[in-house]
Amino acid sequence: MIAPDWTDYEIIGSGDGEKLERWKDVYLLRPDPQAIWKPEFDLKGFKKLNARYRREASGGGAWERLKPFPEQWNVGWRNLTFSVRPMGFKHTGLFPEQAANWSLMTDIIRKESRKISVLNLFGYTGGASVACAAAGAFVTHVDAAKGMVERCKLNAKLSNLPSDSIRYIVDDCAKFVAREIKRGKSYDAVIMDPPSYGRGPGGELWKIEDDIFGLLSEVKKVLSDSPVFFLVNSYTTGLQPTVIDNLLSITLGSFGGTHTAYEVGLPTSDKRGVILPCGCSGLWKS
Prior knowledge:
The chain is α/β, with parallel strands linked by helices. It has 6 helices and 16 strands. The strands form 4 sheets. The protein has a 7-stranded mixed beta sheet with strand order 10-9-8-11-14-16-15, with helices on both faces. The protein has a 5-stranded mixed beta sheet with strand order 1-2-3-4-5, with no helix packed on it. A two-stranded antiparallel sheet has the order 6-7. Helix 3 (146-158) links the parallel strand 9 and strand 10 (166-170).
């Protein structure tokens, strides 16, 4: 699935483990382990380059500023606006490849004659939450990091969404789901974007290969009697789309419907026709 309709974002070139991107008027060079081919030109020598993220041999890394640019700025996708800025661990606060899924989900929501309630777990800065809310859904956005939830609020405001279209929750996602099950709360759709590895606020270890099946099995308990979709994203190397598809089949098969899994990717301006792979997703729909 190729992310559509970007004008403020572009991959100008890729290779040697890096990608050269245009975020509106700002040009960034970031690591990308999938870009194992040779670049079409010298990415580091690109004259308009504003900043580069340098990996450290000991792990981690830092941004190197080369030309002046704002601390943060806005980019648009369709009728939505998002704030971006260089963040820790090479991130910018937005995953543009997810526009492929935003497009799928908003199409589903708009075709429904009723108000759809969406639960977005591990919601990060809210790209999916904002897209679904703009399509007419009521979204519950959950992330354990308060700073990410605040950035979701900012993105919703930038996109001129009604203040009551998104419910913001700072919490451990698994614990939140457990409480929602006890409360008898249900949702018509779920989005999950779990990390590959992490620790909860109490030191709980999360490893996606060990824990995602159990979490999926629990999360399905908050689906309403008439669910419309369930989306799972993965950026874990080695977790193939077929694995995600199998998980959806086993956990959600009792609901009927259809399911599919696919790579998500971004087009590049490379004359060789390079598509940059960016993880995979699985979508169940009624």
